[in-house]
Every structure is written in structure tokens, then in C-alpha cells.
Design goal:
Blueprint: H1 6-15, E1 21-26, E2 40-46, E3 52-56, E4 70-73
Antiparallel strand pairs: 1-2, 1-4, 2-3
Length: 76
């Protein structure tokens, strides 16, 4: 169910290193949290299924799910 290729996982971890600043582009959030496109946060880690865990500036810690949601690294 959560199979992700090793090469894909390595690419994600390289693209979203711990401490990188990111901006949310799109999220399919059924729980309707405070996250919205343009929200910013700091990457905590990329787990073994490719979820990018982020400490969002708004206080949320909802992860960016690989293949479902989208964020981008920003330069501040």
C-alpha cells in the first residue's frame, strides 16, 4: 500500500532536507486545518513512505503526503 521506490525516497530527502523552508502549493485536507496554499513552514523530516513532515508557522504539524499534496522549497 505504501510502497515507494528507494530512488524516489532518496530524491525526496535530498529535495526536502531537514530545516528547509517550504511553502504549501496544494493539500487535500479532509480535516480542514488552518493550512492553505501559501502557508509556510520548516521541514522536520521525510519519513519512510515519503511524507514530508513540516512544522508550519501557523502551528500545524500536518505532513505533506507524497503523490497527494504539494509543497515547494523557498529561499527566504
Amino acid at each position: 500500500m505504501f510502497n515507494i521506490r528507494k530512488e524516489t525516497l532518496e530524491r525526496l530527502r535530498k529535495a526536502y532536507p531537514t530545516g528547509a523552508r517550504v511553502e504549501l502549493v496544494q493539500m487535500s485536507d479532509p480535516y480542514k486545518t488552518r493550512l492553505f496554499p501559501g502557508a509556510r513552514g520548516t521541514v522536520v523530516l521525510v519519513d519512510d513512505i515519503g511524507t514530508v513532515h513540516v512544522r508550519w508557522d501557523c502551528g500545524s504539524s500536518l505532513g505533506v503526503v507524497y503523490g497527494e499534496d504539494l509543497c515547494r522549497v523557498i529561499k527566504e
